[in-house]
Design a protein that fits this description.
The chain is built from 5 helices and 7 strands, in the order ββαβαββαβαβα. Helix content is about 25%, strand content about 15%. Strands 1, 2, 3, 4, 5, 6 and 7 form a 7-stranded mixed beta sheet that branches. The protein is α/β, with parallel strands linked by helices. It is globular, with a radius of gyration of 16 Å.
Length: about 210
């Protein structure tokens, strides 16, 4: 019996070798079919294609989830390049041209296994493998709850391989009044781990004595 972990965001990133003197990143945002499309939308809203090379890949089922959760559809900012999920001609499909960071909207594909971690399956597995073997930044945003031992073991292997597991757990001390503001508390942490400054959500203040 195979168990899968749903995630909302898969982000791949690293410092661009082409512009070592600038904070330019090559960032791949991969969206699969898990619920939580708003996280992907808000991440895209806050990645500036004029400052970073931003690429986007969507699984086939992601389109159905987006149609249910984002009535206006996914708004892709000008300058963001979209690639077919099946394409092996995309630059990030090879270790000779990896993204600096890879982030994803779902871990639904290829984060599964009945008796042992099996990370080589799914539409995004080759891209994820490239990022890990090239020692770039892989950020996974899982949504599944509760977690089975299989999920935890798969996450353990990904952590050992160098990935960052950033669960879609929003914070509530910010006093957020809208769903977007709640989602932003998670997206802000993704941006933090990409090294991108942001003011999306209030920071925790040290208690005043």
């Amino acid at each position: 019996m195979t168990q899968k972990t749903s995630a909302i965001l898969l982000v791949l990133a690293a410092a661009s070798q082409a512009s070592p003197s600038f904070a330019t990143l090559k960032i791949l945002v991969a969206i699969t079919g898990a619920t939580g499309a708003i996280y992907a939308q808000r991440l895209l809203d806050n990645l500036n294609p004029r400052e970073h090379d931003v690429r986007l890949v969507l699984s086939n089922y992601a389109q159905q989830v987006i149609s249910m959760e984002l009535p206006g559809g996914l708004v892709v900012p000008d300058g963001v390049q979209t690639h077919n999920v099946k394409s092996m001609n995309a630059p990030f499909a090879s270790g000779s041209n990896p993204p600096d960071a890879d982030g994803g909207d779902s871990l639904h594909d290829g984060h599964d296994g009945p008796h042992r971690p099996r990370l080589q399956r799914g539409r995004f597995a080759p891209r994820r493998d490239v990022v890990l073997k090239e020692r770039k930044k892989l950020i996974l945003v899982p949504r599944e709850t509760p977690l089975s031992l299989v999920h935890v073991k798969n996450m353990e292997l990904l952590l050992l391989a160098g990935a960052t597991i950033l669960p879609a757990n929003p914070s509530f001390y910010s006093g957020a009044k809208t769903v977007t503001q709640i989602a932003d508390t998670v997206v802000a942490r993704v941006l933090d781990h990409l090294g991108i400054k942001n003011e999306l959500a209030p920071r925790w203040n040290k208690e005043q004595e």
